[in-house]
Amino acid sequence: MDGPDLSGLRPQVALTSAHPPTTITDSSSHPPAKKKSRRGGDPSSQKRRCVSTYVIPPIILLVRCFTACRRRKSKCDGALPSCAACASVYGTECVYDPNSDHRRKGVYREKIDSMKARNSTLQILIEAILNADEEDVPEVVKRIRTCDSLDAVAESILKQEEFGSVGIEDEYPIENDYTTDMPVEGERDLARKMGELRLENGSTRFIGGTSHLIHWDIHGAPNPEYESRNTIGAADINPITSWSDVTKDPEVVRHLLDMYFNWHYPYFTTLSRTLFYRDFLRGKSNILPNKIAYCSPLLVNAMLALGCHFTDAPCAFGTNGDSWTKGDHFFAEAKRLIVDNDEYEKPRLTTVQALALMSVREAGCGREAKGWVYSGMSFRMAQDLGLNLDIGGIKSDNENLDEQEIDARRVTFWGCFLFDKCWSNYLGRLPQLPKSSYSVPKYDVFPDEDAEPWCPYTDSGFDESAKQPSRTRTIGLQLSKLCEISSDLLLFFYHPNHIGRSSGKSVELKKLSELHRRLEDWRKELPKELEPKEGQLPNVILMQ
């Protein structure tokens, strides 16, 4: 074979052999003359070389001749134009295949592909900054600085360009100019079936588009069993005591409710106080079946059980003198109502609120397992009612939902959201209501309601000297914002997929920096009246 002289590129690794290469003799009596080695020395003194591609420059690869040596599985010295085994021993044609060994080529190919991908990602990000509008550039830079993966940001930008999205924060862009050339007779009716709110048993439930129930043209028919439970024949019964069978003393009921609304409600705002008292003062007999109500026997007994923990009055003890039994008699009544009335089968706004209150009461008594179950029932029922959804674009049996009902639904969801984050931090578990599970806006702050006075309440009455505006909704709104930051922290650092693994110090430090910045921004945006100071509201101090 003709070829360039590459003798200077022979491998540097050699293995000694105990025997010289075997020679072939012919049938004549005279011994054949030994062939001279191409290296100019005695072949018997030459050491057989083992070809290794790891010591050869990457430009020129010397590999084993695949036609002969590889087939014989014999050692090859890599000599050119023919190896010693082929030329001197076997007399076969020696052919090299420079493409047969990919050990080095594979490594370099992977490096080249990696560099190409990195350069492509950087080019996409740079072009995104150059082509973005002036007001969008800071948002692009922010996404790059706070991301976990530059490749993910580049892929997101490519998707936005592919779908024609102009919003830099849209994770799932949608074409606004989408049209169809296939008109269908029932298309409008079908579009309405993508999800709707349905009035059943005095509650507005959400039925999703994938459920077969959405195709049933049924509405909330009156429930005789439910109606009989909520109707009292004697009209002269005191409405205040009609909600609980534990006590018929209206002063006890008022005292315990005042304790609840004074010391527990400001921390966990889970209901509309105005709507609750409106229905509470009407009495149970005046709550019409199949109508949305904001008070129920279950909810009242749960409130009374919590109110017992803030008083030393004899009515608060399940067993006289035993402080461990405070509220047990009212709580037992609440549990009886759940079982006897099958409350878990008929989702209602008041049931969601009551289960949330029962969960936190059990946690305060050291029964975390029971409390966790009650909280889960509350959160699942809240989603059954669609409290987690923005009902603005969802069809409803009642197309004109009352503004008070919409507000009460929002207050209840964000109250459950607060309960969820408290449970997650208390037990070190993931949130049951993550950011991806809701779209409901936050509730509004009503100045007249927040201006209602608050002052400490004890068994001796109200302490008027510490009277100040309650600001209940303002504080609840700030707590919900704080819980959103806490939720992101729990999901990033305490997700089961991250246990025992590390995302890298740079990624974790970047996430910590982002969370710290969000907390600082939340702190700076707090109204001045919520600053910590002497005589401040207890729930504000807790929030701080």
From TrEMBL:
<keyword id="KW-0479">Metal-binding</keyword>
<dbReference type="GO" id="GO:0008270">
    <property type="term" value="F:zinc ion binding"/>
</dbReference>
<keyword id="KW-0238">DNA-binding</keyword>
<dbReference type="InterPro" id="IPR036864">
    <property type="entry name" value="Zn2-C6_fun-type_DNA-bd_sf"/>
</dbReference>
<dbReference type="InterPro" id="IPR051615">
    <property type="entry name" value="Transcr_Regulatory_Elem"/>
</dbReference>
<dbReference type="Pfam" id="PF00172">
    <property type="entry name" value="Zn_clus"/>
</dbReference>
<dbReference type="GO" id="GO:0000981">
    <property type="term" value="F:DNA-binding transcription factor activity, RNA polymerase II-specific"/>
</dbReference>
<dbReference type="GO" id="GO:0005634">
    <property type="term" value="C:nucleus"/>
</dbReference>
<feature type="domain" description="Zn(2)-C6 fungal-type">
    <location>
        <begin position="69"/>
        <end position="96"/>
    </location>
</feature>
<keyword id="KW-0539">Nucleus</keyword>
<feature type="region of interest" description="Disordered">
    <location>
        <begin position="1"/>
        <end position="48"/>
    </location>
</feature>
<keyword id="KW-0804">Transcription</keyword>
<protein>
    <submittedName>
        <fullName>Nitrogen assimilation transcription factor nit-4</fullName>
    </submittedName>
</protein>
<dbReference type="InterPro" id="IPR001138">
    <property type="entry name" value="Zn2Cys6_DnaBD"/>
</dbReference>
<keyword id="KW-0805">Transcription regulation</keyword>
<dbReference type="Pfam" id="PF04082">
    <property type="entry name" value="Fungal_trans"/>
</dbReference>
<dbReference type="GO" id="GO:0003677">
    <property type="term" value="F:DNA binding"/>
</dbReference>
<dbReference type="InterPro" id="IPR007219">
    <property type="entry name" value="XnlR_reg_dom"/>
</dbReference>
<keyword id="KW-0862">Zinc</keyword>
<dbReference type="GO" id="GO:0006351">
    <property type="term" value="P:DNA-templated transcription"/>
</dbReference>
<feature type="compositionally biased region" description="Polar residues">
    <location>
        <begin position="19"/>
        <end position="30"/>
    </location>
</feature>
